[in-house]
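Hi L.,

You mentioned the student needs an example of a multi-chain input paired with its predicted structure. This one should do, with 658 residues in total across all chains.
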Amino acid sequence: MSSTLLQIKELKVHFPMPKTSLFAPSSSAVKAVDGVTLDVKKGETLGLVGESGCGKSTLGRAILQLIRSTSGEVVFDGVDLTRQWSHRFGIWRPKDRLRRLRQRMQIIFQDPYSALNPRMTIESIVSEPLKTFNILSGQALRQRVQELMEKVGLDPSYIRRYPHEFSGGQRQRIGIARAIALNPDFIIADEPISALDVSIQAQILNLLKKLQKEMGMTLVFIAHDLAAVRHISDRVAVMYLGKIVELGDTQKIIYDPLHPYTKALISSIPVPDPLLEKSRKRTILEGEIPSPIDPPSGCAFHTRCPIMTEACKSNVPKLRTISDQYDHVVSCDLV
Amino acid sequence: MTPLISVKGLKTYFRTDEGLVKACDNISFDVNPGEILGVVGESGSGKTVASMSILRLIAEPPGYFDGGEIIFEGKNLLKLSMKEMREIRGNKISMIFQDPMTALNPFLKIETQLTEVLVQHKSMSLDKARAKCIEMLKKVGVSLPERRLDMYPHQLSGGLRQRMMIAMALLCRPSLLIADEPTTALDVTIQAQILELIKSINQEFNTSVILISHDLGVVAGMTNRLVVMYAGKIVESGLTEDIFNKPSHPYTKALLNSIPRIDKEQKQLDPIPGLPPSLSSIPTGCPFHPRCAYAVEKCKTTYPETAFITSDHISKCWEVSRL
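Structure written out for the whole complex:
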C-alpha cells in the first residue's frame, strides 16, 4: 500500500473548565479528544464518523493545529506539527514552519453560510490563500481564480458576486475552490454536506470525489452520516467520546462491524426501502452520550453497551488489531 | 373508511416584497384513522406550511388562504374562529416541532409548560395535572420524571427535550399528531429511539400521525402512505411501498438515486442537477422541468394532469409512461 502522509500519536485535546469556586480542587477539563492514534495514507480518503460531541471536529482542527493540542504528536510528512509553536509574552504563536506547511493542508467547513466573509467577493475569497503566500498576482491571479471556479462547477462570470447571492450548495463550492487554490496535499472536510439539501448533497459528494482523484489529494472526511462516509471513503474510523473505537476498510466496517457501538450506529441508520426496514433488526441504544467532562470509567461506552460485563466498568480497552489485511482495529475486550 | 382529516385543494399564499409566494398550491391529501402519513420534500417545498395550515399557525397577514378546505370532525378548520381553533390545538391535534430547544420556553420549568396543557384544555387542578404528566413522561421513556419536571429546558439533552415535546403533545390524547422533522436535530442513535417511540404511540393510542421529513430512509420505515412535495405542490402520492417500488415521478426517482445508502454498494451517485426553485419564482408548467431528465416541450408550458398508476398511487407527470 501507499506510504503514510500523516501520523497521529496519542493525541489529546483538553479544554480546561473554569473553576467553580476559588477553593475548588484542580479544575476539570472537557476531554474532547482523549488519546487518538491514527495513520492517514497518501492519496486515501479516511472517513471519520461519530455523533455530535464525540470530538471528531476537534480532532480535525487539532490535526491542522488550528487549535493547540494538549499532548501527543501530529506528524505531517515527517514534521511534528505540535512542536511548531513558540511561546512569547504569554501567547502561543505558530512558527513559520507551521505556517508554510499550512499551504499543503486545507479545510472545508460545515456551514457554508458562516465560513465565507459576507463582505468579500468570490474573487477575494478564493484568491486570498494565493495572495497570502505570494504565489500569484494581477492578471494571473484572476485567471487562476476563474480556473478554480470552473473546476468546482461555478460560472466564472460570477467572480465579482458576494456570498449572499449564492445558494448553500454553490457556497460550499466556493469553500472548496478556496481550499484547493494552493493545490494542497491534504484536505479535511468537516461535515461538508450536512447543511445542504438532500438533492444537493450528492453534487458535492461527487465533486469532492472527482477533485480528490484528479489532484491526488489525501482527504479526511468528517461526518455523522455513515451512508455518505461509506460512499466516499476507503477507510472509516468511528469515534465515541474522544476516542477511536473502531477503524478499518470501509467494506469491513459496514458489513462486518465488530464494536457494539459501530453495530448500533449502522443499525440506527434508516434505509430508503420499506420492505427492508420492516425486516431489519435494530439495536436501539439506551440513553445518550455521557459528558466528556466526566467520561465513564473503564470503557467509555459501557453505560450504553448492550453486551456490557462487570469488567468493562473498570478495564480501559486498548485498540487491538483484528485483521492486518483490512487494517481492522477495534477497542473492545469482548470482541 | 372516512378519513380523520381531509385536506382539499389547500392554497396557502404569502404576500411578500418579492411577490406572491405560493407555499402550498392546491394541496389535497387525507389522513385515515390510525395511520402514519409521510410528507417528504426538501426545504422550501411547502411541507411545513401545509402542516402549519392545518393548525392555522400561519401568520395572517402576510399569509392567507386563497382557497381549499381542511375538514376535521365535520368542520372546516379554515372557517373556524381563533377561539375555536384554540380548543383544537394541543387537544385534538398536536404538533411536535423540529427544534425542541426553540419550541420550549426557556424561562419556564418543564412542569409549568406540561401542566398548562391539561389545565387549559381539561380544566384539571394542578396536582392532578402533575400526576398525569408524570404518568405520561413514564410512557415516553423519561427516567426520573418527578425530578425532570423541576428542571428548565436547558438542563435537558436534545433527545430528552424531544421526549418532553412528545409527552406534551400527547397529554390530551389527540387523534392527530403532526411531527415536523422530529428527529432532524438529533443524532442517529437518538433518532432511532424517538422514531421507535412515535411508532409505539401510534400503535398504543391509535393516534394518526403526519410525519414530515426530508429523509427518505425515515419515512420508508415509518409510514403507511406517502406524499412527495416539490415547490409547493404534491408531485406524487400513494402507498409507501408502491412509491419506493415504482417511483412514478421523475423527482421521486431522481431523489432516490441521489442519496447515499448504507445497505447497498453504489458506484456513482446521480445528483439532481440545478437547485430547488425559490417559491417566489416557480418555473411555469411543471415546476420540476428545468431539472428533469424526462422533460419535453409540453412540460414547460402546461402543468401536468393527474396520472393514476393505481387507484391510490398518483403522479403529476406528463411522461409517466417513460419512467
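You could point out the following to them. The interface with chain B takes residues 51-52, 167, 169-170, 197-203, 205-206, 224-228, 230-231, 254, 264-278, 280, 282, 284-286, 288-289 of chain A (CB under 8 Å). The longest strand of chain A covers residues 4-16.

Best wishes,
N.
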